[in-house]
């Protein structure tokens, strides 16, 4: 009988690594600083790509300059310069030696001999076809510029903005630029800023794209010294990293600020947007004087444009206000309770909200239920009681907030701005009374022009929110849709496609209801604003007909 292992006997396992699954490491919760969040989501603040970053940097600096001058009732004088910096100069600035390529095929813009031969053959065929068309007497379009082989080499620009505004306190400068979500625009009032980031986001972009610091020179009125600060930002800690912070002599008694920053950008693709922005800003602020310059190593590329002041009449300074009861949520009520200096619930309702007098506050407290009394401590309110207050705020009747706190451009200034920049054959403007949306007052001003300089045939829509131009996502905006779909231009004997029509609508509010993450347009779904835009645009057109 043959001895040995049975064919059914189990196999001896092979020696080797154990297949026992490893236990996953315990997850560690990580926190992001505000600066880190915006660095990771820079598109939220309008820093989508290098070209848009250049545009947004210019916009932020110009709007800060205007705010600063207007805050001290000074007629704004703003100088903005974009200086093109070549790669060699940039490398010299950061102390990096120039490096010649060794392996051309390693680079993204490398073109093989076969690809070059194919491209040249295509160009030759196009030229041959054009020559035949010329011989036959056919109209020939100018040959399109040959597309260069794409590369990802960065372009750098030094952006400088100088103003005659308030200036900044010496000790506050580092935090004003190097700490995200610290600033002076967080109260409830009409402001130009969309995010409250100002130049901070430009500094974050500079840190990401060039690693170079920002430079700030500033002096306040009546100061005998200037402040100079060179700093960057520690993105992970959200704190300023100060290189230099010193005082110098102010012999000229200048007041204002000069900010200089070097960033990656793209002037070629965003040139027209930046120039349109400056022109539209000159329309809505005819009391300001702007000097815009683009400086290049190639003199033929240089641009210098002066936007002169047309009037000395400035809009009133917008006033800070308290919240309307219908405009608050539970978190905001809790924050107001934490920050209030008032002791009782009655005092809190009277002094922390608009349009609640003593008798009205007593009626509201009586309606809240038996757990509430006028003399109860506001700090002792439970979460459930705060929800009850919020529910009542949403259901009760309140007088509308006043529009007196707002600062529209003014019908006179809007008209002057349009005439100054467009030179139309006819222009009419109309300013409406204050309206209300979700507890926030808003004012709509409209202007309509016919003809003019550099105005295309058809509808040319100019949109402004809190006196700043809106240049992107125009098709979805309430102003564009109203101008194109809700106004019967034929009834005013205006040809919508042939005439040169300018439609100007400016909306100011304590809260602009922007849509989208970039806050570049106002939605068409807000009936209160849509109705006001249509009404006041029609009123402006009617005024035009009477001229």
Q: What does the model show?
A:
- The chain has helices spanning 34-40, 50-70, 87-94, 113-135, 173-178, 200-209, 267-284, 330-339, 345-352, 358-368, 383-395, 411-422, 478-486, 527-546, and strands spanning 77-85, 155-162, 214-219, 225-234, 239-249, 256-265, 289-295, 303-307, 426-431, 435-437, 440-450, 458-465, 468-470, 500-509, 514-515, 521-522.
- By secondary structure, it is α+β, with helices and mostly antiparallel strands.
- It folds into three domains: 35-88 and 153-307, Heat Shock Protein 90 (2-Layer Sandwich); 325-395, Helicase, Ruva Protein, domain 3 (Orthogonal Bundle), CATH 1.10.8.50; 411-545, Ribosomal Protein S5, domain 2.
- The strands form three sheets. An eight-stranded mixed β-sheet has the order 5-4-3-6-2-1-7-8. Strands 9, 10, 11, 12, 13 and 14 form a six-stranded mixed β-sheet that branches.
- A hairpin with a 2-residue loop joins strand 10 (435-437) and strand 11 (440-450).
- The protein is globular and about 90 Å long.
- It starts with 33 loop residues before the first helix and ends with a helix.
């Amino acid at each position: 009988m043959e001895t040995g292992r049975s064919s059914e006997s189990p196999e001896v396992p092979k020696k080797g690594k154990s297949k026992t699954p490893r236990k996953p490491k315990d997850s560690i919760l990580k926190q992001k600083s505000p600066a880190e969040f915006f660095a990771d989501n820079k598109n939220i603040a309008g820093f989508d790509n290098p070209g848009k970053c250049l545009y947004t940097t210019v916009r932020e600096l110009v709007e800060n300059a205007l705010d600063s001058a207007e805050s001290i009732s000074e007629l704004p004088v703003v100088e903005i310069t974009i200086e093109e910096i070549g790669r060699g100069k940039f490398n010299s600035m950061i102390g990096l030696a120039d490096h010649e390529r060794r392996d051309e095929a390693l680079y993204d813009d490398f073109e093989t001999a076969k690809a070059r031969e194919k491209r040249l053959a295509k160009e030759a065929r196009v030229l041959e076809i054009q020559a035949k068309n010329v011989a036959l007497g056919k109209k020939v379009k100018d040959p399109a510029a040959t597309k260069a082989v794409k590369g990802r080499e960065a372009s750098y620009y030094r952006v400088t903005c100088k103003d005659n505004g308030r200036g900044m306190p010496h000790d506050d400068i580092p935090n004003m630029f190097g700490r995200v979500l610290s600033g002076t625009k967080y109260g409830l009032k009409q402001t130009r800023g969309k995010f409250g980031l100002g130049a901070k986001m430009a500094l974050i972009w500079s840190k990401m794209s060039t690693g170079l610091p920002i430079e700030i020179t500033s002096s306040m009125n009546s100061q005998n010294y200037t402040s100079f600060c060179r700093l960057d930002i520690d993105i992970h800690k959200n704190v300023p990293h100060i290189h230099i912070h010193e005082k110098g002599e102010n012999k000229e008694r200048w007041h204002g600020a000069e900010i200089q920053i070097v960033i990656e950008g793209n002037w070629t693709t965003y040139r027209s947007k930046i120039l349109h922005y400056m022109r539209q800003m000159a329309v809505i602020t005819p009391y300001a004087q702007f000097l815009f310059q683009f400086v290049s190593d190639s003199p033929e590329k240089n641009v210098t444009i002066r936007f002169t002041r047309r009037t000395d009449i400035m809009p009133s300074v917008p006033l800070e206000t308290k919240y309307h009861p219908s405009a608050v949520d539970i978190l905001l009520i809790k924050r107001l309770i934490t920050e209030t200096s008032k002791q009782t619930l009655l005092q809190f309702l009277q002094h922390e909200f608009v349009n609640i007098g003593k008798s009205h506050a007593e009626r509201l407290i009586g309606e809240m239920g038996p757990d509430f009394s006028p003399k109860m401590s506001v700090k002792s309110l439970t979460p459930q009681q705060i929800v009850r207050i919020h529910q009542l705020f949403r259901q009760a009747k309140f007088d509308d907030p006043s529009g007196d706190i707002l600062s529209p451009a003014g019908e006179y200034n809007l008209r002057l701005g349009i005439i100054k920049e467009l030179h139309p054959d006819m222009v009419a403007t109309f300013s409406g009374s204050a309206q209300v949306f979700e507890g926030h007052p808003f004012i709509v001003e409209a202007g309509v022009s016919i003809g003019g300089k550099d105005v295309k045939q058809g509808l040319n829509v100019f949109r402004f929110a809190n006196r700043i131009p809106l240049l992107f996502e125009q098709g979805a905006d309430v102003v564009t849709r109203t101008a194109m779909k809700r106004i019967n231009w034929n009834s005013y004997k205006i040809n919508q496609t042939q005439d040169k029509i300018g439609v100007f609508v400016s909306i100011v509010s304590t809260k602009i209801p922007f849509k989208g993450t970039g806050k570049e347009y106002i939605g068409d779904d807000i009936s209160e604003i849509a109705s006001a835009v249509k009404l006041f645009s029609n009123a402006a057109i009617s005024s035009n007909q009477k001229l």
